[in-house]
Amino acid sequence: MKRDPLSNWKQTILWFFSFAALYTSGPAAAQLTTLHEFVDPEGRGPMGILLATDGNFYGATADSHLGSGRGTLFSLTPDGAITTLHTFAGSDGLSPNNGLIQASDGNLYGTTSRGGDGLGVIYKMTTNGDLTTIYSFPGGVGGETPFSGLIEGSDGNFYGTTFSGGVNNGGMIFNVTPEGSFTAVHFFDRSDGANPAAALIQGSDGNFYGTTSREGGFQQVGGTVFQMTPDGSLTTLHAFDASQESPTPMAQLVEGNDGVFWGTTFGQFIRGRVFRITTDGALENIHTFDVSEGNNPAASLLLASDGNFYGIMGPGGSTIAGAGIIFKVTPDGAFLILHRFDGTDGAGPYFGALVEGTDGNLYGVTGGGGASGNGTFFRFELPR
């Protein structure tokens, strides 16, 4: 069985944040309420949540008490009561990713980066926990390691990416019907990027937008932002320069109210940036993170109903006091830290984007911290 090239990386990040939380201190902000602390056998390292039409939150954990990436799928009520809906066994997937979605048919869809035939699966699950594998990645030209979640296109099919595999082993874009009919839409050939790690977004213009984490197949070379038409024609909008920019986009893009897309990047020497980019490729850096703020954002931004963007990210270097932050960016680029996690209220909010609840507050998860170190589910009340 081939190993997921990002599985160890994900686990290392989660372990690091759980460990780092033991060395941080400071009172939690009054606006944040921890609603649930994950304990075995519920799962370890929650990867993100979505708000479903029934008013509950659904998400995945990266691992469980059974180990070996046997993550779980769960539901949470707004007040924090948890139900474990499914624990992966291997044949039905391993290492579930963030990016669980609820489709127009009411079911939940997602991916795992391992398991099935060994190289990841696409699954469907009812809100009662009945899970069906609708596609298992065969590897090679057929794609492998779908590290990102899915989106439902306007045509009713699901679109996603694989981190590797394809004709050039640089990853691919695919679509799949709810019944499991799979089509490869685009193979990255490294001249147009490689190793996409984030979910796509379908813009208001009907085109798809996304990122690759690398260009040219070398880690020190930056990734790309691209546009793809519904028929699969791909255009690179921006190629990040690793010598001058924070070069690695890992999070899904978000379309602003003005039709401009917002995203984040991280890099080895520059700790991460918030950027925005137009549909014709004009990119503007909005904010560069420093060690006092955080390090390497990997969760997508949230465009909230107040018109502002909200984000969450893990801690920075050894001088930072905290285990991650919640931040706000206004449409004109003003940046503000809203909360610093201290470990007791969570640590390492790395993968899962914030979600706006029906009450207007923000909800989210952290990959570590809390009493058990397995992660937390929280509510953050925005100042009124």
Question: What does this 3D model show about the protein?
Answer:
This protein has 384 residues and is mostly beta strands. It has one domain (7-380): Neuraminidase, CATH 2.120.10.30. The strands form 7 sheets. Strands 6, 7, 8, 9 and 10 form a 5-stranded antiparallel sheet that branches. Strand 2 (44-51) and strand 3 form a beta hairpin. It is built from 1 helix and 29 strands. Helix content is 4%, strand content 36%.
Features:
four-stranded antiparallel sheet; 384 residues; Neuraminidase; five-stranded antiparallel sheet; mainly beta; 29 strands; 4% helix
What is the topology?
Blueprint: H1 7-20, E1 32-37, E2 44-51, E3 57-63, E4 72-76, E5 82-87, E6 94-96, E7 101-102, E8 108-114, E9 121-125, E10 131-136, E11 151-152, E12 158-162, E13 172-176, E14 182-187, E15 201-202, E16 208-212, E17 224-228, E18 234-239, E19 254-255, E20 261-265, E21 273-277, E22 283-288, E23 302-303, E24 309-313, E25 325-329, E26 335-340, E27 355-356, E28 362-366, E29 376-380
Antiparallel strand pairs: 1-29, 2-3, 3-4, 4-5, 6-8, 7-8, 8-9, 9-10, 11-12, 12-13, 13-14, 15-16, 16-17, 17-18, 19-20, 20-21, 21-22, 23-24, 24-25, 25-26, 27-28, 28-29
Low-confidence stretches: 1-30
Number of strands: 29
Structural class designation: mainly beta
CATH H-level superfamily:
TolB, C-terminal domain
How would the global form be characterised?
Answer: globular
CATH class: Mainly Beta
Q: What Rg is obtained from the alpha carbons, in whole angstroms?
A: 19 Å
Tell me the count of domains. Answer: 1
What CATH architecture would you give?
Answer: 6 Propeller
